[in-house]
Amino acid sequence: MSEQFSPEPALDVPIVFVDLETTGGSTSEHRITEVGVVEVGPAGVSRWSSLVDPQQPIPSFIQQLTGITNEMVRGAPTFESIAPALFERLNGKLFVAHNASFDRGFLRSEFRRAGIAFDPDVLCTVRLSRALFPAEKRHGLDALVERHALVPSDRHRALADADLIWQFWQRLPALVPLDVLRAQIERTTRRYRLAGDITEDLLDTAPAGCGVYVFYGEEDAPLYVGRSVRVCQRLRSHLTGERRSSKEIRLAQQVRRVEWRATGGELGAMLAEAQWIATLRPGQNRLPRVTKSDPEDAPWPFQGAIVFEEREDAARVFHVVDRWRYLGHASSLVQAAQLHASSIAGPFELSTYRILQSHLARGLRVMPLGVPSGAPASSTESSLV
């Protein structure tokens, strides 16, 4: 018969309190030896645990810490064999763990090896404890046991430690005003369950450096265009970050698809962002104001297309502009010429005109496309219109 529980602090989804024991700290090198789950939902509380054969030796110091020996896991199920049932137990529930990035990271890696995508929303009780009790210096599980009179049954075993996290959760409504507690839970929870076709694995493929990105909503309507010097990190902040504004949270809830482009530099990102905003006209970007002094077209002050160089880390990129149209970037002057040759004539881009006028006035050095690599670039300050 399942244990009944107080529903406070009430959440919209069931909760699982999870703890793991492993052969070490690396998700690529080490494996899980035990899983413990305390599941809390409308029907009450249920507990589940299993030893897991890691298919590798358990180091002696970890055997001493956990009490789990090589003999104990010999003949236990492999993770792959329990993966489908464990996924059903965890899927769709808020994943709560102490040092949650460790437990989530190991489970995500093990599920991936079993061919299952695992991206739960996660609440770390270390972070929650720090947020709720900032005057305290220690927030490890032993500190929580001492501070909140938790009752350990078998420390460093998965189910027993998962139960300690559940005990801590039960103590909180008596220690913190409910509205504060709910607000901190919402603020601390990391939302990994992304909308549409966006997954953690997809975000891993986003550029680590400079680039632009666009969010699309229902019916592929453009929502927002942005740029960043760290695109992958910025996307995670938008979609899964803890310190998001209410505006960012509302935006993330509407996103169904994301597209990005590496730009190889900050000025390239600025040009590409402005170009995308002008073309896509996304609903949550402020469109640049057109004034009476802005030209509908402008003379091109060069004899042909130009390139300018940016560096990102050790890499060189060459940006191509022709008649106030930004054509993109290439990794060499030869590729820049090919990019120009394959481009199709387009309309005057006011955004490109504005950005380049500003940077040319500050001494941006450009050269005509077709100048051999290594030839001196020229400053175009005197050629401004």
TrEMBL record:
Give the catalytic activity. Answer: DNA(n) + a 2'-deoxyribonucleoside 5'-triphosphate = DNA(n+1) + diphosphate
Query: In what residue span(s) does the GIY-YIG domain sit?
Result: 208-286
InterPro entries (alphabetical): DnaQ, GIY-YIG_endonuc, GIY-YIG_endonuc_sf, GIY-YIG_UvrC_Cho, Ribonucl_H, RNaseH-like_sf, RNaseH_sf
Q: Which domain of life is it from?
A: Bacteria
Q: What's a BP term from Gene Ontology annotated to this protein?
A: DNA replication proofreading
E.C. numbers = 2.7.7.7
MF-aspect GO terms: 3'-5' exonuclease activity; DNA binding; DNA-directed DNA polymerase activity
One of the record's GO cellular component terms: cytosol
- Name the PANTHER family for this protein: DNA POLYMERASE III SUBUNIT EPSILON, EXODEOXYRIBONUCLEASE 10
The record describes its quaternary structure and partners as: DNA polymerase III contains a core (composed of alpha, epsilon and theta chains) that associates with a tau subunit. This core dimerizes to form the POLIII' complex. PolIII' associates with the gamma complex (composed of gamma, delta, delta', psi and chi chains) and with the beta chain to form the complete DNA polymerase III complex.
What this protein is reported to do is described as: DNA polymerase III is a complex, multichain enzyme responsible for most of the replicative synthesis in bacteria. The epsilon subunit contain the editing function and is a proofreading 3'-5' exonuclease.
Q: What is this protein called?
A: DNA-directed DNA polymerase
Q: Which species?
A: Paraburkholderia susongensis
